[in-house]
Design a protein that fits this description.
Ribosomal Protein S5, domain 2
C-alpha cells in the first residue's frame, strides 16, 4: 500500500516541472524582435560617398543645415530571442521589444524581407518626389529627381526625402535653409498628396537623432505620445500631418515668426 504524500512533498513535486517549464521558456525562441537606435543619414548630403538627392532639370542651391532620416536596428527574423531578452528589453530605454511581424511583415526568409524593404523604399522615394514637386507646383517642369540611400529599406524616410527636395529647390522662396542651419531629424511615411503617416520605433529614432546632433525632430502627430515617453534632453518635437505643415513649421522656426506646433 502506497503511503500518503505530505503537503510539502506534493508541492515540491508540482514545483519541479514548473521550474523546468520556466527554465525552458526562458531559453525558447519567442516571436519578437529586439530593436535599438540605428543609423541616421543627412538627405541633403552624401551617404557612402554618393549624394542622397540628385536633381536635374532645375537649378538647386547649397544648403548649410542637415535633414537626417532616422532608422532602428532590429534582431533578424531568424534570430533567437528568448524570454530573458524580452524581459531585459522591457526594462531598458535604449531598446524596444516589438512583435516580429511588425518589423518583418513580409515573410521569414532574409531574401523575402530584403526584396520587400527594397520595394517599400522605391515606392516611398517615388511618392516623396511626387509630393515635393506637387507641393512646389512644379510637377510638369521636367525635373528629374534621383534618390539613393545605401543599405536602408522601408518607407519611413519619405517625409525627409520630400523636405530635402523642397529645400534644394528653394521651396520656401527665401533663399535660406529650411533647417535654419540646424540639424533637423525626423521620420514619417509620405503619400503622393503630401500626407504624412505613422511609422514604428519612434522612441528609438529620437535617441538616434539626438546622438547624431539633432536638436529638432519631426514626428507624425499620431506618435507624439510615444516620442515624448523617452525623449532625449535637448531634442524638440514638432508634430506633422502633411508636407505643407512640416515646411510651414520649419519656416516659422527659422524666421521666428508664426507658431510652431508642439506635442
Amino acid at each position: 500500500m502506497l503511503s500518503r504524500l505530505t503537503r510539502s512533498q506534493a508541492l515540491a513535486l508540482c514545483a519541479a516541472p514548473l521550474v523546468a517549464l520556466i527554465a525552458t521558456a526562458g531559453l525558447a525562441p519567442l516571436p519578437f524582435s529586439v530593436a535599438q537606435p540605428g543609423m541616421t543619414a543627412d538627405v541633403l548630403g552624401e551617404n557612402k560617398g554618393a549624394p542622397v538627392i540628385t536633381i536635374s532639370g532645375a537649378p538647386t542651391r547649397e544648403t548649410s543645415g542637415q535633414l537626417r532620416m532616422t532608422t532602428i536596428e532590429a534582431t533578424g527574423p531568424e534570430a533567437h530571442v528568448s524570454l530573458g531578452d524580452v524581459v531585459d528589453g522591457w526594462f531598458r530605454t535604449d531598446q524596444a521589444v516589438m512583435p516580429r511581424d511588425s518589423v518583418y511583415p513580409s515573410g521569414e526568409s532574409p531574401k523575402e524581407i530584403e526584396q520587400y524593404n527594397t520595394e517599400q523604399m522605391k515606392e516611398s522615394q517615388d511618392a516623396a518626389t511626387e509630393a515635393a514637386l506637387g507641393y512646389l507646383d512644379r510637377a510638369d517642369d521636367g525635373i528629374k529627381v534621383t534618390l539613393e540611400l545605401a543599405d536602408v529599406g522601408g518607407p519611413s524616410a519619405g517625409l525627409l526625402f520630400s523636405l530635402g527636395i523642397v529645400d534644394k529647390l528653394d521651396g520656401d522662396g527665401s533663399g535660406g535653409d529650411l533647417t535654419g542651419g540646424r540639424t533637423v531629424a525626423g521620420t514619417g511615411t509620405i503619400d503622393a498628396d503630401g500626407t504624412v503617416g505613422a511609422v514604428g520605433g519612434v522612441g528609438l529614432k529620437t535617441q538616434a537623432a539626438r546622438r547624431d546632433g539633432a536638436t529638432v525632430f519631426l514626428v507624425p502627430k499620431d506618435e507624439c505620445s510615444e516620442a515624448k515617453a523617452e525623449l532625449p534632453e535637448g531634442l524638440r518635437l514638432i508634430p506633422v500631418t502633411t508636407l505643407k505643415g512640416a515646411v510651414s513649421s520649419l519656416v516659422a522656426l527659422e524666421s521666428g515668426k508664426g507658431s510652431v506646433p508642439a506635442c
